Amino acid sequence: MTELSTTTAPVLPARPASSGGSLQGDVAPAARQPVGWFPASTVGVVTALVLVGLGVAGVHDALIRWQVLGRTGTPWTTWVLDAVNGWRPATISWLLVAAVLAVPLGLLVLVLALRPRTKPADALDARGGVWLDRSSADRIAVDAAQSVDGVRSASASTSRTAIVVTVAAASPDPRAFSEYVANAVRDRLAAVRPPRTVSVRVRDPWSS
């Protein structure tokens, strides 16, 4: 009868737990906060298009001056200067008005360029960097309001500081009923940081 040889594998010591009570490497890295539209990108695109147009005009006039495109052709800058030279005083007055209006427009562009990106999501009180966007917060608030007995329909709008919930319900005491709905919404969104102020508006379900 053939004997089978066996080998006992060494037992490795267990990896010590971290100070937080969990093993190292078991916690996923935190996700970055989502960001919205960056106003400076639009200003940059418009500025880039203007500079490209000026560059194309400069190259066109240079090629005509160096007779690369032949002896025929009028530089665009010459055409613009001739057109400006023929303007009447009434037209020049409109240019002065346009110049005055361009000042606040330039200030607006400067403000947009310096404005930081919007933050369309809020942090949740959870490990791992979980974020909740405001449209999802609206849906959660609507679901929480509709879970209250007597609510026929609901809608919600979330801003940076508050959540406004509108419910259609028939209640003899709208103030107490609105507080009941607000508590339900607060409990459902208790993990959102920073917390929002919840206000509830009760309207007649049979009103148009």
Topology overview:
Blueprint: H1 39-65, H2 76-85, H3 89-114, E1 121-124, E2 131-133, H4 134-146, E3 151-158, E4 162-169, H5 174-188, E5 192-193, E6 197-203
Parallel strand pairs: 4-6
Antiparallel strand pairs: 1-2, 1-5, 3-4
Helix pairs in contact: 1-3, 4-5
Topology, number of strands = 6
Strand content: 15-25%
- The rounded Rg comes to 33 Å
Instruction: State the order of secondary-structure elements, H for helix, E for strand.
Output: HHHEEHEEHEE
If classified by CATH, what would the architecture of the largest domain be? 2-Layer Sandwich
Task: Provide structural commentary.
The radius of gyration is 33 Å and the shape is elongated. Helix 1 (39-65) crosses helix 3 and helix 4 (134-146) crosses helix 5. It has a three-stranded antiparallel β-sheet. The chain has a three-stranded mixed β-sheet with strand order 3-4-6. The chain has two domains: 39-114, no CATH class; 121-203, Alpha-Beta Plaits (2-Layer Sandwich), CATH 3.30.70.1350. The chain has 208 residues and is an alpha+beta fold. The chain starts with 38 loop residues before the first helix and ends in a 5-residue tail after the last strand. Mean pLDDT is 76; it is low at 1-28. The longest helix is centred in the first third of the chain and has 27 residues, at 39-65. It has helices spanning 39-65, 76-85, 89-114, 134-146, 174-188, and strands at 121-124, 131-133, 151-158, 162-169, 192-193, 197-203. It contains five helices and six strands; from the N terminus they run H-H-H-E-E-H-E-E-H-E-E.
